[in-house]
Amino acid sequence: MNWELFFDKWLPKMLDGAGVTLELLAIAVVAGLILAIPLGIARSSSKPWVRALPYSYIFFFRGTPLLLQLFLVYYGLSQFEAVRQSWAWNYLRDPYWCALITMTMHTAAYIAEILRGAIQAVPTGEVEAARALGMSRSKALLYIILPRAARIALPAYSNEVILMLKASAVVYTVTLFDIMGQTRTIIARTYQAELYFFIAGLFYLAITLVLTQIFRFIEHKLRVDMLQGR
Length: 230
Fold this sequence. Notes:
MetI-like fold
């Protein structure tokens, strides 16, 4: 192992890959949350026709692998002439945007189910109290149900973020230089597969540790705020 070469050449590449991974993860989980909120609300509806579309969406994205979904977006959409002639082709021909779109749609399905469960776990007494105070259904949803559901869903949401971090390793298959993409490139030049896969694992572990501590801090703050509000 040439440590001077590692620190001068290979470590900066690994750090660049970590930056790509974190950027994809951050955008996907935030955009996925925004997309998941209406899906989760619709899934918790008592009306079957309202639940039908989000159920189909969630069933597909939870029932198929992320890698398959990535290939469908990256390779599949390019087969349609209408897509290649549209404005969307400026983005869909770029592996970065294909990976970001796929990750967002994938995680949105899981987050929507987390929100559905959290909404249904909100105590009925709190909802009835809001209605008794004269709140409309939409106001009760906005000011009572969703904030309460957010606290309930936070632990499961944090798990989903970490799962998406690990799942993001598949984006190297569409030529993105994330952690795994940079690792495979370095291995092709050094032939030290075991060493650099181990280093890649350390990167993922370090990011997971940081994310875990961040969410633990948020959960603690929310718990303290809730106790002080009583």
